[in-house]
């Protein structure tokens, strides 16, 4: 892990916290703006409005001429269209996207959780057939060419909490798990036969996506300057436009705090960059915002309870309780 130097990402070290499992801590004194990790998406999908202008592989601008002739939904830029891994991902979900486009069983492309589940199942199916060196897509290869990047595998995704089994796995409310079951049952008739998984496996996958997903955002200034995507994360506002949702296992290891000392943003390759926002002392826990920290205490806590299944007891929440 590290600060963006040639030596890799070495500014953080993993530790344990009695009340929150894994905790990431500073391995040395860190100045503001230190790059802690840069992580390629394990799986990500654009929001419906972005489908008409973004590549489904790397999220970069992509014209209508790149639209898939079979599903009429996905677009792949020249680089992703030439990448066997990216094409394989789409092949497993192509027919499902066409059915969502046509509104079968009342389902539409607006069901982002369902589309992200389909992408994860496609990624998992592809990973079964290739060696680790073939996991990378055109997007992650391009990201690696521009600097150090972590490319997570299936094992890293499976190590995330699902909220289904309790204990170290987290504990989503029964009502939330029931909703995940409904989505999982809907996926069963959509997903390609070769990428299918049991309903229980899909429920756990959906739980991991809910508890560990990042909303991808774009900054207009960065789009103009870099011709790509950028922004800040965690639902934190800051003038950034939401463009999609993805899961980044290595970045999901940072705990939340309502007064965090680090923040996430997205670069032109769809990678999440976690950087310090103030000076951090060696040994101090590194935290990021899961929700907009400009919200009031009760609204923040309500969103964290609903979306991430925990009661926030950070120092700021305790201080604002009175």
From TrEMBL:
Cross-referenced Pfam families: SET (PF00856)
All copies of domain SET, residue ranges: 23-290
Biased composition (Gly residues): 229-241
Record region (Disordered): 218-241
GO cellular component labels: nucleus
Descriptive protein name: Predicted protein
Organism: Micromonas pusilla (strain CCMP1545) (Picoplanktonic green alga)
């Amino acid at each position: 892990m590290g600060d963006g130097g040639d030596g890799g990402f070495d500014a953080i070290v993993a530790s344990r916290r009695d009340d929150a499992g894994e905790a990431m801590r500073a391995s040395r004194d860190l100045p503001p703006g230190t790059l802690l990790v840069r992580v390629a998406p394990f799986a990500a999908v654009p929001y419906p409005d972005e489908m008409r202008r973004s590549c489904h592989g790397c999220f970069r601008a992509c014209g209508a001429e790149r639209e898939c002739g079979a599903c009429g939904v996905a677009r792949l830029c020249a680089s992703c269209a030439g990448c066997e891994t990216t094409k394989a991902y789409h092949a497993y979900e192509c027919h499902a996207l066409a059915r969502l486009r046509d509104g079968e069983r009342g389902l539409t492309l607006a069901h982002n959780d369902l589309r992200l589940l389909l992408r994860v199942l496609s990624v998992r199916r592809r990973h079964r057939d290739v060696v680790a060196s073939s996991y990378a897509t055109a997007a992650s290869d391009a990201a690696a060419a521009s600097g150090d990047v972590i490319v997570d595998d299936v094992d890293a995704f499976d190590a995330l909490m699902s909220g289904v089994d309790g204990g170290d796995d987290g504990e989503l409310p029964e009502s939330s798990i029931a909703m995940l079951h409904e989505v999982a049952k809907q996926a069963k008739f959509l997903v390609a036969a070769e990428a299918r998984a049991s309903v229980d496996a899909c429920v756990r996958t959906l739980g991991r996506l809910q508890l560990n997903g990042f909303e991808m955002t774009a900054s207009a200034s960065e789009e103009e300057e870099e011709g790509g995507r950028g922004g800040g994360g965690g639902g934190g506002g800051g003038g950034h436009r939401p463009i999609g949702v993805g899961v980044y296992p290595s970045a999901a290891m940072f705990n939340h705090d309502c007064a965090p000392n680090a923040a996430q943003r997205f670069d032109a390759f769809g990678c999440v960059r976690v950087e310090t926002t103030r000076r951090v002392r060696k040994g101090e826990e590194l935290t990021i915002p899961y929700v907009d920290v400009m919200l009031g205490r009760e609204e923040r806590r309500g969103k964290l309870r609903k979306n991430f299944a925990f009661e926030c007891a950070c120092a700021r929440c305790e201080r604002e309780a009175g």
